[in-house]
């Protein structure tokens, strides 16, 4: 496995997960400081719209480099290596699906009106004026956001295990 491939993988994964963690854990709840509930929706929408291309590029780079590394296993891979690699494959599936779900649910939640943003308390918390469909989307967004974060932690952990297995 080349150092360039490994670097692309690690930087891509860090970009996707780090931005997702910052947005989910800091930006999404921080919009509560804005007085206007529609401005909160606008801020969340703008923040994620600016990050999503970077997240997509990072996750795509990590995913492609993961498959390149999978095509070049150790000469005699252990059962632990094989099982961990399969788990990492599954985690990448969760990461991709939950990222797409978060993008779609987030857009749906804050863009209920054609010329205005949906009033929200935070990205995942509705106000009394939030339409029911948007509030349901916010609930789904909470789940998909945590799926992203947890799959990312799993990807880092399985990557460390696989690296240690390669060094044996």
Question: What do you see in this structure?
Answer:
This protein is mainly α and 168 residues long. The protein has one domain (3-72, 79-166). It is built from four helices and two strands. It has helices spanning 3-30, 37-70, 79-110, 132-166, and strands at residues 120-122, 125-126. Helix 2 (37-70) runs antiparallel to helix 3 (79-110) and helix 3 runs antiparallel to helix 4. The mean pLDDT is 94.
Give a short summary of the structure:
With 168 residues, the protein is an all-alpha fold.
**Sheet having the most strands:** 2 strands, antiparallel
User: Regions with pLDDT < 50 over 5+ consecutive residues?
Assistant: none
Count of alpha and pi helical runs: 4
Compute the number of strand runs: 2
Round the Cα radius of gyration to an integer and report it.
Answer: 18 Å
Strand order of the largest sheet: 1-2
